[in-house]
Amino acid sequence: MNLTIIGTGYVGLISGACFAEFGYQTVCVDKDQNRIDELNQSKCPFYEPGIEDLLNKHLNKTKLLSFSNSLAESVKDADIIFITVGTPSKRLEGDADLSFVWDVARQISQNIKKYCLIVTKSTVPVGTTKQVKQIILENIHEENFDVVSNPEFLREGSAIDDFMRPDRVVIGCENQKSESLIKELYRPLNLNETPIVSTSIETSEIIKYASNSFLATKISFINQVADLSEKVGANIQDVAKGMGIDKRIGSKFLHAGPGYGGSCFPKDVKAFINTAKKHNVDFSILNAVDSFNDRRVSEITNKIISKSNLNKGDTATILGLSFKPNTDDVRDSTSIKIAKILNTKGINIKCYDPEAMPNAKKENAFLTLCDDSYAACNNSKAIIIGTEWNEFRALDLKKIINNKNKLCIFDLRNIYNPKELQELGFNYFGTGT
Ligand code: UGA
Q1: Exposed/middle/buried for 187, CB within 10 Å: 0-12, 13-18, 19+?
Q2: Which of 264, 370, 377, 408 is catalytic?
Q3: Which residue in 19, 67, 130, 209 could disulfide with 39, CB within 3.0 to 4.6 Å?
Q4: CB 399 within 8 A of CB 378
Q5: Main-chain phi, psi angles of 181, to 5 degrees
Q6: Average of pLDDT values for 100-119?
């Protein structure tokens, strides 16, 4: 089976490398020639554990993977074409911007030469896959192609494992022929008995948004309970544990923190709300999830400023800049948002992150980057742990504590034991503890 993947962003590149690992001849296409040149040297444009090894293996050893900037050439012999281009939020409106999807659909329709399956893997609002079909019908007879919706559920930082061992594969098809072909593609996953949810195209598109939105809801919910716990002297970690043991609730995504970030949840929640609005459906639950998450960073920053009495000219430290550990992605990162607010108040920011510093600095020149956590904490009035990288869990805190003044530490991800830090002499503030 020949596969063509259009768009070498996160989903496209991980899927391409993993399909090659399944044994399929796979070509990944991108119009950005620089990116293609780098990929041809097995250099990945983002940090993701394990990806460069896979690229290297299938580019140079098995030769199952290749990269091209020619969409026309790459779709000619394809049996399955995946659309994995970006669907960013439109400025102000919150709707997904689908212009890249439409453009790719038009180009596919002008260049395919034989029957193929055209699969939307990007996160796209309900109705998009059928609109892709309409665009392709302008040039290709309906017998010569089918469209399928096949959303992806990869998490940054553990994307390869998520692809190889997914909880489920969701496919939305219109007929038996396309369903059989896409099921055949995922046959390697039969070994781990991965459930395949085979449904209509619209249902499949909704499953993706509903899944991300539900997880975001869990996070906003636990964050609100954390705020209450803080006020009444309860401990949010024990609350989450006590709730999560109930199998109907589940323990995952109940970690309180500074709010959800990244390239998916904030954008997808807003787009899902907009879809509901267009259809006059009451999505008040998700509206609350979204607006609470938007407010959370400024509320947390105000707390940091007042508890540590930060004033203009003072220095604060941020440990962790990526939106979560094991990635260099700083899109919608809560750490960066906190840094920006502090910066507008004239507070100097020293920071350290194992992977995300170059990306963070690109758009935030005011950040002072340090070689390690200890250098970042030197002469600081407040330490903010923004991302729960493993290396922040075992810092030698005696090296950091400044005995003259009680140093404030804001453990936004609850990675330390409050008592131990208080005994060391820190003024400790967790989230919901
Ligand atoms: C998310 C989904 O988890 C994936 O299933 C989905 O495929 C992906 O979006 C996507 O649509 O492409 P990702 O954005 O990589 O994956 O990261 P998550 O691990 O879901 O974390 C998202 C945000 O929620 C992060 O800011 C994280 O810190 C926060 N979070 C997560 C919490 O604050 N508490 C939790 O308990 C879990």
Answers
A1: exposed
A2: 264
A3: 67
A4: no
A5: -65, -45
A6: 96
Three-state DSSP class for residue 318: strand
CATH number of the CATH domain containing 291: 3.40.50.720
Q: Please report whether residue 247 resides in a domain.
A: no
Which amino acid residue places its CA nearest to atom 13 of ligand 1? 155
Best CA proximity match to 334, nearest among 220, 214, 251: 220
Q: Would you say residue 7 has pLDDT above 80?
A: yes
Instruction: Say whether 18 is catalytic.
Output: no
Q: Compute the distance between CA of residue 36 and CA of residue 55 in angstroms, rounded to an integer.
A: 12
Q: Taking all residues of the chain, what is their mean pLDDT, rounded to a whole number? A: 96
Q: Is the CB of 323 under 6 A from ligand 1?
A: yes
Residue of 400, 409, 407, 413 lying closest to 335 (CA atoms) = 413
Residue nearest ligand 1's atom 30 by CA: 260
Phi, psi for 65 (deg, rounded to 5): -115, 135
Rounded to two decimals, what is the model's pTM?
Answer: 0.96
Cβ of 155 closer than 6 Å to ligand 1, yes or no, is yes
Residue 158 gets which letter from DSSP?
S
- Residue 146 maps to a domain: yes
Q: Compute how many other C-beta atoms are within 10 angstroms of the C-beta atom of residue 91.
A: 8
Residues 324 and 355 sit within 8 Å (Cβ to Cβ): no
Of all atoms in ligand 1, which is nearest to the CA of residue 219? 34
Q: What is the span of the domain harbouring residue 176?
A: 2-199
Per the domain annotation, does 205 fall within a domain?
no
Nearest atom in ligand 1 to 324's CA: 28
Give the CA distances from residue 148 to residues 56, 145, 171, 186, 372, in Å, rounded to whole numbers and listed in that order. 30, 10, 7, 14, 47
Supply the residue whose CA is at minimum distance from atom 2 of ligand 1. Answer: 155
**Structural domain contains residue 27:** yes
* Ligand 1 pocket check for 278: Cβ under 6 Å: no
* pLDDT tens per residue, range 173-207: 999 999 999 999 999 999 889 999 999 999 999 99
Q: Is a pLDDT exceeding 70 seen at residue 404? A: no
For residue 395, what are its two tokens?
A: 């810092």
- Rounded CA separation 100/102 (Å): 6
Q: Which atom of ligand 1 is nearest to the CA of 152?
A: 7
Which residue lies with its CA nearest to atom 9 of ligand 1? 264
With a pLDDT cut of 90, the percent of the chain lying above it is 94
